[in-house]
Specification:
The chain is of the alpha+beta class and 113 residues long. It has one domain: Orthogonal Bundle (Arc Repressor Mutant, subunit A). Helix content is 52%, strand content 13%.
């Protein structure tokens, strides 16, 4: 189903936004991905992913309060929308179907993986 299509990085950003819940903003999402997946994330790639997810209607953003550490600029917080939640559920279901279809013997010591 095309309307629920997510790229790998978009899926990671969407899931991480869910993990952080109300504390999801650019730097916190970046740090969480890097810590959990041991994967470097550039702010440019992250912002592109967030914009795409918002354009697709999977997340929405809101402005937080201005802070001195940000020279008076407010943080932009992200939260998952109802469509984003459906998308995550669809993605998980699709992946589970594929994982469950792999013969168990493939994961045995003499298997090909």
């Amino acid at each position: 189903m095309k309307k629920y299509h997510l790229g790998e990085f978009e899926e990671i950003v969407l899931l991480t936004t869910g993990i952080l819940h109300k504390g999801a903003y650019g730097v916190s999402i970046k740090n969480e991905i890097e810590a959990r997946l041991e994967r470097d994330v550039s702010m440019g790639a992250l912002h592109t992913g967030l914009i795409r997810l918002e354009d697709k209607g999977y997340i929405r953003s809101s402005q937080g309060g201005a802070t001195d550490e940000r020279a008076g600029r407010p943080r932009k917080y992200f939260e998952i929308t109802a469509l984003g939640k459906k998308t995550i559920a669809y993605s998980k279901s699709s992946r589970d179907k594929l994982w469950n279809a792999i013969p168990k013997m493939i994961f045995e010591p003499n298997g090909s993986f």
